[in-house]
């Protein structure tokens, strides 16, 4: 079976959840099932490959144009299309980012929700071709879904959101198969001691072992780092460690770093390799990801694999039930500072069961590849 993995051209230079999912799925499809996988970053390249399936990753607004072009080319060439949407409710996170870029940081939900409803209700009915809420962007996403022979959401919750947001997909002949977003269990396990000489930037991790609050995510409004610091304002003795790129929203980054400087006891490590991340997770007291949108929340799963308690946002913002974040972690309202504080306090003081071997197996990339392979067989 020959599979083309169609993805944005910067998937390696701007690593995200879609990049990680693609690369690991490719590895285990090739290793376990002998599937021939080719990564494709240009529509023209689809013509040059003899493919059974074109697997398109990511249908968020930034990538939907390319995704649709890939799907249209596949249809012309009579190639089956599999789509991993990697999708969640996007309206509020988009508004939060738009406000932030204009210098309005940490706007309340009383402002965000009405703004998103108003813009969606107005702009979706206008013929404009620009903007997140435009009718054009919505129609392109709807068409991309309609071209897919099989749709592969990362959770039943994601499937439900897609069907609510694009109700016409309920009438499609497309098949559906949930493929769990997963973790490489060969890399993510409890690792209190680093296996090699400790890199200089990780020395602070060793000195703070077992004491620090960790957030592993790109520093941006979506990931909500500023509210983490505000939630811990009255607890200056608790070290906070941020791991991730700061090359996103400049105004938000500036606000986070100014507040961190004022608070003190806050450390920015920058980007860290997966091999190093297991050490970082394992030595944290709690991992906190009060994000406004996660189709799974890879960092939360990775943290659980490393034996560290987690705080995630509530079920409106991420698939809490499918990934058992409610069973193994604590949830918060990401808009409310007091809620984040309370969830961190609970994670620090109350024990939750460690993840089971069945959890490790189910949310492994070997199992995700199995589900993906079975999905391909449904349409080939």
TrEMBL record:
One GO term (biological process): lipopolysaccharide biosynthetic process
Top-level taxon: Bacteria
Gene3D superfamilies: Glycogen Phosphorylase B
Protein's name according to its UniProt entry: Glycosyltransferase family 4 protein
Residue span, Glycosyl transferase family domain: 210-352
Keywords: Glycosyltransferase, Transferase
CDD domains: GT4_PimA-like (cd03801)
Molecular function GO labels: glycosyltransferase activity
Enzyme Commission designation: 2.4.-.-
Class in the EC hierarchy, top level: transferase
Pfam families per record: Glycos_transf_1 (PF00534)
Matching InterPro entries: Glyco_trans_1 (IPR001296)
């Amino acid at each position: 079976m020959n599979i083309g993995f169609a993805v944005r051209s910067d998937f390696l230079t701007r690593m995200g959840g879609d990049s990680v999912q693609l690369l690991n799925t490719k590895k285990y499809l090739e290793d376990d099932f002998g599937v021939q996988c080719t990564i494709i970053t240009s529509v023209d390249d689809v013509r040059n490959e003899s493919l059974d399936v074109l697997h398109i990753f990511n249908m968020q607004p930034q990538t939907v144009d390319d995704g649709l072009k890939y799907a249209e080319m596949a249809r012309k060439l009579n190639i089956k299309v599999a789509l991993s949407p990697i999708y969640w409710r996007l309206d509020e996170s988009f508004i939060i980012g738009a406000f932030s870029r204009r210098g309005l940081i940490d706007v309340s939900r009383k402002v965000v929700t009405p703004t998103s409803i108003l813009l969606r209700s107005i702009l979706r009915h206008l013929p404009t071709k620009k903007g997140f809420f435009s009718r054009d962007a919505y129609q392109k996403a709807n068409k991309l879904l309609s071209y897919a022979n099989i749709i592969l959401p990362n959770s039943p919750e994601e499937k439900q959101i897609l069907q609510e947001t694009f109700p016409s997909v309920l009438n499609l002949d497309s098949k559906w198969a949930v493929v769990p977003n997963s973790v490489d269990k060969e890399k993510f396990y409890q690792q209190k001691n680093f296996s090699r000489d400790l890199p200089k930037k990780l020395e602070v991790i060793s000195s703070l072992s077992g004491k620090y609050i960790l957030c592993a995510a790109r520093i941006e409004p979506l990931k909500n780092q500023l509210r983490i610091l505000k939630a811990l304002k009255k607890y200056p003795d608790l070290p906070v460690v941020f791991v991730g790129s700061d090359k996103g929203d400049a105004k938000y980054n500036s606000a986070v770093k100014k507040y961190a400087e004022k608070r003190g006891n806050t450390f920015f490590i920058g980007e860290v390799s997966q091999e190093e991340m297991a050490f970082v997770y394992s030595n944290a007291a709690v991992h906190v990801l009060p994000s406004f949108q996660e189709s799974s929340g890879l960092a939360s799963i990775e943290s659980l694999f490393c034996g560290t308690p987690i705080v995630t946002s509530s079920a409106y913002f991420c698939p809490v039930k499918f990934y058992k974040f409610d069973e193994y972690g604590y949830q918060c309202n990401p808009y409310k500072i007091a809620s984040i504080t309370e969830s961190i306090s609970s994670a620090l003081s109350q024990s939750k069961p460690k993840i089971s071997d069945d959890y490790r197996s189910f949310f492994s990339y070997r199992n995700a590849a199995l589900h993906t392979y079975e999905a391909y067989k449904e349409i080939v």
